[in-house]
Amino acid sequence: MCKHILNAQVSIRAPCCKQWYDCAECHAEAQDHRLAKTVEMVFACKKCKKAFRKNMAEYDESDEYCPHCDNHYVIDAKTPQAVIGVEGEDARVDARLIKDERIKENPSRSIFARDTTDRIG
Fold first, then answer.
1. What's the structural domain count of the chain?
2. Could you tell me what percent of the chain has a pLDDT over 90?
3. Per residue in 74-85, pLDDT tens?
4. Is 107 domain-assigned?
């Protein structure tokens, strides 16, 4: 699973070390050498798990699909974005998630305040 591209559809075989990676950044993290450039690339579809070759010098729009299962693997990459937020609705609309420390709690509203001796054997 690639941590750089969240929706990677294919794995790429690096021509320099003959190992499979989801992206060039994964290769850079795992290896101490640069990724070699080549005209013919080897891909492995993540949907059907079959490998295929593409000549990048003669690449056209029909080459954006896996030849085995027609999976569209050339799509815009989704990269992880750091987001800080609060789960839940807007506090001005629904304030049930916010506890007000100024208000004393009613001890009779606790689940431990109930008399359940008649239910215990």
1. 1
2. 13
3. 777 777 776 666
4. no
